[in-house]
Amino acid sequence: MNKISPLAAMEMQGASISYNGKPVLEGLDFLISEKKVTGIVGPSGSGKSTLLRTLCRMNDRVPGFHVQGRIRVGGKDIYEKGMDVYHLRRKVGMVFQSPCVFPKSIFENVVFALKRLRPHLKNEFAHIAEQAFREVFLWEEVKDRLHKPASILSLGQQQRLAIARSLVIQPEILLMDEPTSSLDPESSEAIEELIAELKTRHTIALVTHNLSQAKRVADDLIFLRQGRIWESGPTARMFENPSRPETRDYLIRRTDLEFA
Ligand SMILES: Nc1ncnc2c1ncn2[C@@H]1O[C@H](COP(=O)(O)OP(=O)(O)OP(=O)(O)O)[C@@H](O)[C@H]1O
Ligand SMILES: [Mg+2]
Question: Within 10 A of 44 (CB to CB), how many other CB atoms are there?
Answer without folding.
Answer: 6
